[in-house]
Amino acid sequence: MAPAWELPADSETPCILLEPLHGETGEALDFRWTSMNVPAEGWVRSLELGRHVSLWMREGLALFDVAAFVRVLMRGVPHVGQLPGDAAGRRYVVVRHGEGLALWLLPRDEGQAADAHQAERERAARQEVEAALARAEQTVSALREAEERYRLATRATHDVLWDWHFATDHVRWDPGTGNAFGHATSVLEHKLGWWGERVHDDDRDRVVDRLVEFVASTGDVWSEEYRFQRADGTWAHVLDRGVLARDDEGRPVRMIGSMMDVTERTRQMETMVEEARFRERFIGILGHDLRNPLNAIVLSARAQKRRGPLECTPEQHRQHAQRIEASATRMGNMIADLLDLTRARLAGGIPLRKGPTDLGAVCQQVVDELSAAYPDRAVAVDVDGKAEGEWDAERLAQVLSNLVGNALEHGSPDAPVFLRCYAKGEHQLLEVQNPGNPIPEELRERLFDPFRQGEGEREQGGRRNSGLGLGLFIVKEIVQAHGGTVEVTSTQKDGTTFTVRLPRPPRPKAKAKTGRGRTRTA
Question: N or C: which end of the chain has fewer CB within 10 A?
Fold first, then answer.
């Protein structure tokens, strides 16, 4: 039996060091001795006591109050008691000692005058106990100060602080000022498997495997980023960090860490990356597509200047003028699309000027304009019923011009394009359908993104399509600004159909006058 720590070799005061025994949930249930000095050894042997304090009995009575020992371990406040059934009235003191307790048995009170030597020994023993109590008080003060710092740090952070005990595999959550990702307080203490089940499927193997590898290694700091499921089923991007404590033999004992919600930071980083890619595509495509019509204007102007008005035939002069006009129109359309793009991304959406609008007339207007650019193609218009409402006629004409123009360009050249306008419930529907090869699925997923062009796109005359890949993006923005939706279906059998769904304004309720001059709703 090793002597008690910091105990003088010649001390006759019995001292026993105890270690706690924890239950499945981590709470201390009992204590057992780990070492004692010679006087304590004689006392234990004389009473034939085992190792567990809860089994130390005398005449059917427990010698010590285990619950009081647990309170000393938890709070750090020393406990003084008296041995039951001890005729001499022996008292004892229990203090915190490291991760366990130190039990001191105070000298017997014989009720008679002791000689000077005995008194000196008792005084020395009391001094030893008082010194131990003083050290215990210092430890309690330090623990209280550390607890206060921890409490203030917890209040200052929105992180979830966690404490993982390897002996019980229990994890204790402390949400600080946060809400533990919406999970109820009943799960603030849980098994490690509960956490693993809420890691995203695409991240779980990586995160769990690296955690297992870390625990098996000699490292002491672990960190991972992954997606964690909130109580409402949504996913939070988290930064999880932990520090591992090991025993003297290097075995993991306890791990403490924090889980930080970095969803907003991740979203901002993704936005910054997307904006950087957007600017790169914007500059590259803009420089390429604007250069073509600008070169046509410059070359035509130079040819006109080089030959002079007298050397050019009327036909050459007309061709130069048409080329300059068509190129300038294309550049103007590009600039208009870029302005719409800027409004959609920076101003919160494309502005509208709503007014009484007849969509049937808008459909016919768009078809007439495109028929001039595609004289060899057929566009069938079907307006079913009334199509009046409060919309922005020019913007919806822009929508139909883009959709019908795309259908003429990408559909089968020998098949007509169908444009339907009809009411359905509280919505007005516009459908543009063309036979032909279906749009590939991977292209449909990003069809309405800016700067996304369909395969085989080509220039024809001075039509609206600018080649920047903004047409369908602007279509979506205009429709959404009206509170509607736009969808696309594309199959080999039925071809490609774009469906625009616009909310119809409620019809005004009719009013009738009563005989007394009042009005009532019919």
Answer: C
